[in-house]
Amino acid sequence: xxxxxxxxxxxxxxxxxxxxxxxxxxxxxxxxxxxxxxxxxxxxxxxxxxxxxxxxxxxxxxxxxxxxxxxxxxxxxxxxxxxxxxxxxxxxxxxxxxxxxxxxxxxxxxxxxxxxxxxxxxxxxxxxxxxxxxxxxxxxxxxxxxxxxxxxxxxxxxxxxxxxxxxxxxxxxxxxxxxxxxxxxxxxxxxxxxxxxxxxxxxxxxxxxxxxxxxxxxxxxxxxxxxxxxxxxxxxxxxxxxxxxxxxxxxxxxxxxxxxxxxxxxxxxxxxxxxxxxxxxxxxxxxxxxxxxxxxxxxxxxxxxxxxxxxxxxxx
Length: 316
Known about the structure:
Helix content: over 70%
Number of helices: 13
Largest sheet: 2 strands, antiparallel
């Protein structure tokens, strides 16, 4: 069956909407997690346990129906998915929020992840990248550097530890993005696999190991908010939305949209965390947004498609 060219703008709009919905939840997760780590008794281990324990229960019927292994990519691919979007990713990203502000997380995780995802897509999925999209990818890291540059030039405390953890989290999520694209899984199934194995692997450690825990002294309302936001929205709804965006747009183009998280996280952090962006940060966010527009290929829909750079030879 040949795709109708007239339907491409509609599909692109649908994919973009799914991606924007997902990254809105991610931005909120960064701000809310940093707020809770500073204002409540919950630890990163409590938050991770609530997140994947809740999600595993909610998605258990899906797992019973479709299985706990992504057969198209095998056990190894399944492990990459769980590492990239499951408990390991959540622990790394949340740990970074203990050392660096939410704005840093919003810049480094989604700002660098598209570059990792595109490189992996070229190598693993044999995707070609147009010159126009490459221009967008050049703008994104420039904007990221402007956003975090002042703190990098004048290190404060242990902020560099958080930045390294954020970059590691970016690589984790890029690995998930490409692997789920290769697997061809339906969104609910992918989310169920990630939640199930994260719960199976992490919850025994959380319950038996001498980890710092503060859930016993947390209020019911605090725990309820975590169940709804971490367990439902972040682990289930955002994965479904992002998987849907990947299936429509492709791995590297869907990943580019995550670069909008710096803008969303910064705006959310103003009233919640009291973080007011400087003029340099505002300019950096604008540059990243422009990079997103060009890197997503949106401009090419109103002009002839540019020639592709032969970064990878397509298999026959």
